[in-house]
Write a structure and sequence with these properties.
Helices cover 34% and strands 25% of the residues. By secondary structure, the chain is α/β, with parallel strands linked by helices. It has one domain: Vaccinia Virus protein VP39 (Rossmann fold, 3-Layer(aba) Sandwich). Helix 4 links the parallel strand 1 and strand 2. Helix 2 crosses helix 5. It is globular, with a radius of gyration of 18 Å. The termini are far apart.
């Protein structure tokens, strides 16, 4: 922490490189997301393992240290690709997933996805695409749709504005250039926070939504204690 205080403030990928190396502000887990595990159980109830098997490939956009891809690869023997802007996170992902059929690369999710059409059975966007601009978010969704195979699954998790006092405070105290965005005071980059209506409008244009799960308001003695989030289970029309 002293190095950060003495030197120039780290932002964006520099911030996350420091976090994955030193864990200064965020607890970065090596275990899979519980929300992802629920999503995978839902897919199995819907279609068995027709999309979760060794013949299928998956993509994690904003994969961090690769924990979620690694869990899926170990559980279902699937192949996978993960992209993240943090070189430190990708180094960790490559090390932890070196015995698995996984590939990781340092890459911005704002860029076109360098994968063939209809090549992925599963795409994950977990707390990643909210850093994109409006145009980038639309292009991103088009790319997710393009690389998903017919019937393939899309798991989208992001921050939720509705009834979130923390989000309202960030929008008020650290406004970004785009309405509905703020400059994160620690990370130093713009983040967009969606209402549920905005999310449904964005996803329904391209996918069939099967389930919407929202976290609680997380109030302790009437004060906001945690950011709200929303998870969308969506499927590409066959």
């Amino acid at each position: 922490m002293q190095n950060m205080a003495r030197g120039k403030k780290k932002v964006g990928s520099g911030f996350w490189n420091y976090e994955y190396k030193k864990a200064g502000h965020f607890a970065l887990s090596l275990n899979p997301s519980e929300d992802l595990e629920k999503f995978l159980r839902f897919i199995e109830r819907q279609s068995g393992r027709s999309f979760l098997n060794p013949t299928m490939s998956m993509l994690d956009l904003g994969c961090g240290n690769g924990r979620n891809l690694i869990h899926i690869a170990k559980t279902y023997a699937m192949r996978g690709i993960g992209y993240d802007i943090s070189s430190q996170a990708i180094t960790q992902a490559k090390d932890m997933g070196k015995e698995l059929p996984l590939a990781f690369a340092v890459r911005s999710i704002a860029l076109a996805i360098p994968l063939p059409d209809a090549s992925q059975a599963l795409v994950l966007d977990m707390m990643a695409s909210h850093v994109l601009t409006h145009t980038e978010r639309e292009d991103f969704q088009d790319e997710v749709l393009r690389v998903l195979r017919p019937g393939g699954w899309y798991f989208f998790k992001t921050f939720l504005l509705d009834e979130d006092r923390n989000a309202l405070r960030l929008l008020r105290d650290h406004p970004g250039k785009e309405a509905g965005s703020y400059i994160h005071p620690l990370i130093g980059v713009a983040e967009y926070v969606f209402t549920e209506e905005e999310i449904l409008t964005l996803i329904e244009k391209r996918f069939t939504i099967h389930k919407v799960l929202k976290s609680h308001r997380h109030l302790i003695k009437g004060a906001p204690a945690k950011r709200r989030s929303i998870c969308i289970y969506a499927q590409k029309v066959s």
